[in-house]
Every structure is written in structure tokens, then in C-alpha cells.
Amino acid sequence: MKILHAANFSPFKYGRSFYSIDRKISWGCSRLGHFVYEFSYRDIARHESPFGGKFGGVKRMHRRLLETIDQLQPEVLLLGHTELIDGECLAAVRRDFPSLAIGMWYVDLITPSKKQQIASKMPYLDAFFVTSAGGALTQFQDIAAGVLSYLPNLCAASVETGRAYQANCEYDFCFIGTPTPDRVELREKLKKALPDLRFAFHGSSEDRLEGADYLHTIGHSAMGLNYSRDNSVPLYSSDRIAQLMASGVLTFSPAIPELDKLIPEDCMVIYRSDEDLIERIRYFHAHPEQRQKIAERGCALTHQRFGAERICAWMLNTIRHRKIDDSVEWASFSWPKSHG
Questions:
Q1: 142 neighbors 118 (Cβ within 8 angstroms)
Q2: Looking at the domain that runs over 2-154+307-335, which CATH code has it been given?
Q3: What pLDDT digit, counting tens, does each position of 228-263 carry?
Q4: Prior bond of 336 cis (ω within 30°)
Q5: What is the pTM assigned to this prediction?
Q6: How far apart are the first and last CA of the chain?
Q7: Which of 85, 93, 189, 207 has its CA 20 to 30 A from that of 254?
Q8: Where are any strands of DSSP class E within the chain?
Q9: Quick one: CA dihedral 97, 72, 43, 27, positive or negative?
Q10: Main-chain dihedrals φ then ψ at residue 284, nearest 5 degrees
């Protein structure tokens, strides 16, 4: 079938973010045999603006979206974040193309301002997917017209090609992310407590990693840290967890609520405190065979359970049938609850 995927494809970053979720979802749908037409809504809004800024071209971008649907006649409209596409625009889509199935995915924490943007679209969505559970989903129960579901962070076999458990690694431990105060503090603790380790710390504007360099560093790090902005939200993590595990890195993570329902503890390393993290890093650095076995199990599980083709097939089925497949491991983190 034909899928119109409106997301942020960043063509003017010239490959710096080729591993983004946006592109992996398009790739996964294409691998299933579907034709995917990408509509880079932010760039189109900028192009349509007389002033060159995305906000000045929003209404024109809305018209271009409707024009594209008319020309393409897709079976599915898939929205990724799409903060510039509001409920009014989707109402026009529903009016003009009533048989079109519409789904939306979202991979960040839902702040109050983001909640308002998403809520305006809820009456027009057949399915909404987000990379956190609990309140992130239940807050929309009263206004959702379709299914609400947790969305696992996904990987792509042709993107996460590294196998750090097999590699002669350049780094003993990598920690990549925007340098928030708590991350900077933890980074300094690690450096002080483990002075003999070869660290790859990146994330600030001075040492930001992008493109192939980013995936090379991950794929050549024996161990790595998954540390999101908020580790208390059920199942929430940045997509770094999938990038690390799918690249064969022994992945360390704080105890995220419900994460053990999807990822067994013999596939990664869960730590309870900074001191516990340090001791576990020290242990696995001294026991490389154990590190490699766990990393290999985690890599295999991530590609099998969270591979783009499997996730996209499930997403499209959910959008078109407004029903959660009970066979997926995260089926219980959905609304309405599935009944087989």
C-alpha cells in the first residue's frame, strides 16, 4: 500500500541524522513492501514561508499536505511528532479523505505544552504511539478516538551494524548525551573512580558526534550508558538504548519502571546508584567474556524484538484495525486493553 509519512527528515543536515527514528520507520515500512512518500513538514513549512522561518509557512504547509494526499491517494497517513500539524488541519484531512487511516508516533517526553499540541489531534487519530507508558497514555483516554499504545524504541539492521562484543574496541565505555547537570556530575564521578578506562564522552556543542562518527563510536565501545532526561517514567528511554544494544554494546541503565517487562536483566545491566554503576563497570571491564555474552544476548534480542520491520508491521496493523495485537510483548501497555 501507499504510506504518506509526515515527519522530520532533515534533508539539510546532509546525513548527520540518518539514523533517526523518522527514517528507520520509513525504512521499516519500505522493507515490508509498501511505498513510502516522505513529507518533511518542517522543511516544507520553511520553504513555503515568505520569510524563511518554519512558523511563517505553516498554513501553506497544511495546504501542501492536503495536496500531497490528493495526488498520492495513500491508504495510511503516518505522522511523526508533527507539532506544526494541528487538529484543524487533520479535520480537513478527515473531511476530504474520510477513508484514510491516520496514525501518529511520538518519541519524547510529553511536556504540558506538547500535551496540548497532541490533544488537538486525538479526535482524528486511529492510533497514537509514544515511547513511554503510564500517564503518557492515560492522560488522553477521554479524548482519544482510536488506540493508544506504548511504542518501543526501534533499530534497523542496516543502520545498527556494529557488533561491539566481537570488536577490538577503541573505548571501554561511552556516555553520549546532552550535558545536563546530572549527566555532567555522573560523568565526572566515572572519570575520577575509573581513571584507567578509555572513555568516550560526547554531547556538548564542542564534542558533538553525528552521522557515521556517532555510530562508529558506539559500535567500537565495549560498554555504554543509557541515561535519559527522566528515568522515572514507565518504559521511557531515549532511542539510545536501542542504538547501544543493537550495536552489541553492554548497555547500563538505571532502573526504569517496567523496563524488565520488555528487556530481561540478562540482556543488559541495571544499576541502582552511582556507586553501584561504578562497581558494575569495574567488574565487567575485568571480565570481558561475561561482558561479551550479555551484550550478544542483548543485541540479538533488540534486533529480533524491536527491529524496524516488526515494529512497523505492528504499527500499520494497529492503525488500520484500531486493535492491539496480543502477541507483542508490550500489548498490556495500551488502551483500550486488547481482548485477543
A1: no
A2: 3.40.50.2000
A3: 999 999 999 999 999 999 999 999 999 999 999 999
A4: yes
A5: 0.95
A6: 26
A7: 207
A8: 2-7, 35-40, 76-80, 101-106, 127-130, 147-150, 171-176, 199-202, 221-225, 250-254, 269-271, 334-335
A9: positive
A10: -75, -25
